[in-house]
Amino acid sequence: MSISDFYYYFCTTKKLYMDYKTVILAPISEERERFKTIFNDALHSSNPLLNEVLEHVLHTSGKKMRPMLVLLSAKLFGKVTESSMHAAIALELLHNASLVHDDVVDESDERRGKPSVNAAFSNKLAVLSGDFILATGLLEVHKTKDLKIMEIVFNLGRDLADGEILQLHNQMVEEHVYEIYFDVIRKKTAVLFEACASVGAISGGASEADVEVMRRFGEYIGLCFQIKDDIFDYISDARQLGKPVGNDMQEGKLTLPVLYALNKKQDAEAHRIAAKVKACNASEEEISWLINFTIGEGGIQYAESVMEDLRTKAQTLLKDIPDSEVKTALLAYLDFVIYREK
To answer: Is 268 exposed, middle or buried (0-12, 13-18, 19+ CB in 10 A)?
Structure first.
């Protein structure tokens, strides 16, 4: 059975999540192992206290989905080069630095079910270690010796910060506007996936047209990734993710499912509670009421339909690229992001 047939089998039997690694990692298994070694070496210090913090970050880091996108994008157009590897490390480091800083800003106590850096150590150590990780990432992007890749990564840092500030500004806006939500998640999440797909393609020798195709492919993946995360906030089983149900609302965030419900039905109580959520003074009972209102008005189904539309657009982008094991892996990557269970 070919990898393409294997992927089709798991898609049609609804077992993709369980075995996504088989399909996604098949073309880049050797490169991924090399990435993990270099990444772990990069995230290390001779300073005992800093090294303790960095070890904590390593143990709370996720599946390394973003570096995989860099490696796959590179291999789609050629091969994984030294530039590809350094770019993948730089982007993962930048991602980790942003998470450490975000937890300080959001006063989060947990990251993926484990104590966040600020909770395990202190805000000061979290900020300083985040700065160290960021600086290390900039050193890695310099090693690519590619000005286009450098420009993408540097602009990414600006966009991530802009997204966080835009999200804070959104809490002051009374209207429940879809455009603001999508602007926030583009700058907070999608730009990182855009960057991964773009720099991977550049390092693999893709044409400008193909780099743009991959940028848009990465954007759609990133939007789906954030929408899926937002859906988890309404589902009780999402406690396994390391954040309680309604956590986004506790932080003053109104995401796509509840925005749909609020715009669909002009319910006075729902809008009253939504205003309290944005002001960060809604009670647990009120948040629970708004979650149930969102589910009852079809907010989850709407968000899922948006992801399906984005999935179709992303698939269409790759239609003119010849079929290969790498293309199959990228399509499996897209589906994993949408259909994952955690």
So the answer is: exposed
Q: Per-block average pLDDT, block size 10, for the chain (342 residues)?
A: 47 52 92 92 89 87 88 97 96 92 85 84 92 94 96 93 84 80 94 98 97 98 97 72 74 94 94 94 95 96 98 96 95 94 80
Query: Distances from the Cα of 249 to the Cαs of 142, 153, 173, in angstroms?
Result: 39, 31, 15
CA distance 59 to 94: 17
Task: Please give the DSSP secondary-structure letter assigned to residue 318.
Answer: T
With beta carbons less than 8 A apart as the criterion, state whether 1 and 41 touch: no
The tokens of 191 are what? 């730009």
Contact present, 69 and 218 (Cβ < 8 Å): yes
Residues forming beta bridges with residue 115, ordered by sequence position: 110
Q: Is 206 exposed, middle or buried (0-12, 13-18, 19+ CB in 10 A)?
A: buried
Burial of 50 (0-12, 13-18, 19+ CB in 10 A): middle
Q: What is the 3-state secondary structure (H, E, C) of 121-186?
A: CCHHHHHHHHHHHHHHHHHHHHCCCCHHHHHHHHHHHHHHHHHHHHHHHHCCCCCCCHHHHHHHHH
Collapsing DSSP to helix, strand or coil, 110 comes out as strand
| DSSP per-residue letters across 289-309 | HHHHHHHHTTHHHHHHHHHHH
Going by C-beta distance under 8 Å and a sequence separation of 6 or more, which residues neighbour residue 282? 249, 250, 273, 276, 290
**In terms of Cα–Cα distance, which of 16, 96, 98 is closest to 62?**
96
8: tokens are: 């089709």
Tell me the whole-structure pTM to 2 decimals: 0.91
Strands (E), 68-125: 110-111, 114-115
Q: Report in angstroms the alpha-carbon separations of 256 from 141, 277, 290, 299.
A: 34, 14, 13, 7
Q: Output the CA torsion sign for 102, 106, 112, 116.
A: positive
Instruction: Name which of 69, 98, 208 is nearest 158 in CA terms.
Output: 98
